[in-house]
Amino acid sequence: MIDHQKPLGSDFGARSTASEVLAGRDLTGRRAIVTGGHSGLGLETTRALAAAGAEILIAARDPDAARIATQDIPRTTVDTLDLSDLSSVRRFAAHVLAAGRPIDWLINNAGLMACPEMRVGPGWEAQFATNHLGHFALTNHLLPLLGAGARVIAVSSAGHHLSPIRWDDLHFTSAYDKWRAYGQAKTANALFAVHLDRLGRDRGLRAFSLHPGKIFTPLQRHLTQAEMIAEGWLDATGAPADPTFKSPAQGAATQVWAATSPLLDGLGGLYCEDCDVAVRAETAGEPFVGVQAYAVDPEEAERLWALSADLIGTGFLGRPGCPTS
Question: Which among 176, 182, 271, 294 is annotated as catalytic?
């Protein structure tokens, strides 16, 4: 097997912005769904795609807030989606399917980070359920509209270095650790892209995951200032102290690049960072750079897919009776 998990030589980098990635591109007539597309990286992604002519459906837990945040952005609409509630996922998907319009890019951007222990659904750990299972269900429901040429983008994180999939205690039934739970959820995002791409490639559907970089956004809402000072992100006065942090526009660049770059034509299942395909972590020589082997392992990805389908229910992509099985 040829290993494509290595940089392609993109013209963009860590300081590129989403708008720069799309400079000169005409996306008129193309359509994207961006979960959490009204806040943080999602808002910058929405702005850049809309400025290039695309239409964006924003999936938001708080639709009123989303409409206010995007009221000046053309070609945007909003619908309600709570990724932690599978009935909400089904309702959102039903609205999209009823409209019947093809989707060029599904950007699974929304998520939780390092939250206190919370349970959703039948007792699922909230970060895994929201960041992974909600997007897993959403993508599978929308499969009929994701045709040839479509890309699904899973916003993972270098946080995946914190934990592989914990097969023996997926939902942290004991000894909850908010950072390990986040790491597992971000590993799940990357593995989701690996197996979705494997299942979808013959029909022209490709998938990618990515690390957007370190960015101050509402994602940090569950962290205290003291925690961020301890991490070195802020100084003792609460001012930004880590020069490697990106602006939201720079943070959104990699997901926009992964969704639209012609360099990725014919490829898929790859983990990206800094507007290029990432290196493998074992070759990087520094922590939290590149992708860990367990996050792009095809066998791990297939195992997680089967487990996720069993948790969510039958009738999904790659299950008996589905279009790609």
Answer: 182
**Which sequence spans correspond to the domains of the chain?**
18-312
Angle among Cα 101, 103, 105 to the nearest 5 degrees reads 160
* Structural tokens at position 50: 């809309």
Residue type at 217 in one-letter notation: T
Three-class secondary structure of residue 4 per DSSP? coil
Structure tokens at 207: 């998938």
pLDDT per position as a tens digit, 75-127: 999 999 999 999 999 999 999 999 999 999 999 999 998 789 999 999 999 99
Kindly state the helix (H) or strand (E) to which residue 226 belongs, with its residue range: helix 225-230
Does 182 participate in catalysis according to the annotation?
yes
pTM score of the predicted model = 0.93
Burial class (CB in 10 A: 0-12, 13-18, 19+), 269: buried
Q: Which CATH superfamily is domain 18-312 in?
A: NAD(P)-binding Rossmann-like Domain (3.40.50.720)
